[in-house]
Amino acid sequence: MMIGSFSHVTYTKFTLALGPVALVGLIITVALIALFHRTEFKGAPRLDAPQPEVNANRVLVIRALLATLTLIVLFFAGVVPAKAAIIIGGLLLLTRRVKSRRVYAEIDWSLLLMFVGLFIIVAGAERTLLTPDLFASIGRLRLDSIPVLSGTTAVLSNLVSNVPAVLLIKPFVAPLKDHDTAWLVIAMASTLAGNFTVLGSIANLIVVQRAAVSGVVISFWDYFRVGAPLTVITLAIGTLWLWLWL
């Protein structure tokens, strides 16, 4: 989302460029999980989860589906995603069937606070660490090359996590000739690099935390033995695809 707001790459162009990479990556993910945990899929008894009782309001469900469809249409029509999302979200809150405070109660405020702190720290690091000498050194890395930019973004994403990595690499995109290509490469590499370790992405930490609450422990090694080869393979495929497609 940040890259979309920074780059102004259209939703259609982004989907056409990175949709195939996401699809292939999903297939590879399923294959690797099935390979590394084949004993759980073959010999283990089938798990039957109890069906939860769903007490849905049919009118609100229809409204939400129509709103989602409208939102997708607006995305592909070229409306700024942030503007479209906040308008549709605001319209969904205009209802007497569900009190707004019940919706607000579902917001993960601690997660939002973590993101606020993260952006503050990254902004401070950007002002203090990005010296002229560092700019010159990074400028010699030939970031206009898709493989180099992809590799640099992947390494940086695993050092500081992928969201801060995007913020830190933003100043180095301006001097590049093709901004759209650079941002697409950064979007691909930073997202896929987050799969390398459980610390590579905030989304990973959220999943591990939620799993622990449910009694499922995902250790660093459990994640790494699938995430590491997955990241290497998908990064190679994504880089090659963008190199050929763009």
How does this model look, in words?
With 246 residues, the chain is an all-alpha fold. The chain has a domain at 108-245. The chain contains 13 helices and no strands. Helix 10 (162-169) packs antiparallel against helix 11. The longest helix is centred in the first third of the chain and has 26 residues, at 11-36. It is globular. The mean pLDDT is 84.
Task: Summarize the entry for a quick read.
This protein is mainly alpha-helical and 246 residues long. Helix content is 73%, strand content 0%. The model has no long low-confidence stretch (mean pLDDT 84).
Characterize the quaternary organization of these chains.
single chain
Mean pLDDT: 84
The rough form would be described as: globular
Strand content: under 5%
The main β sheet shows up as: none
Low-pLDDT runs: none
Structural class: mainly alpha
